[in-house]
């Protein structure tokens, strides 16, 4: 499936898009990390939760759990929140 990569993580993929597979969202992120080592840690914290400043959307709907079932035709979008003052 296609994964859209935010600009802050493109140093890993060198592209705004990547391909990854897996039966769950977590498995997709593991496959992404297999291809681009270190990228999963930037998205998932030590407690195996999506980091506070990251949002993941599957087919335009916010993903609520890493255990969410995935289909090969799904599109995953990783969004990194911006902050400043």
Automatic annotation (TrEMBL):
Pfam families: ThiS. Coiled coil: none annotated. It comes from the Bacteria. PANTHER family: SULFUR CARRIER PROTEIN CYSO (PTHR38031:SF1), SULFUR CARRIER PROTEIN SLR0821-RELATED (PTHR38031). This is MoaD/ThiS family protein.
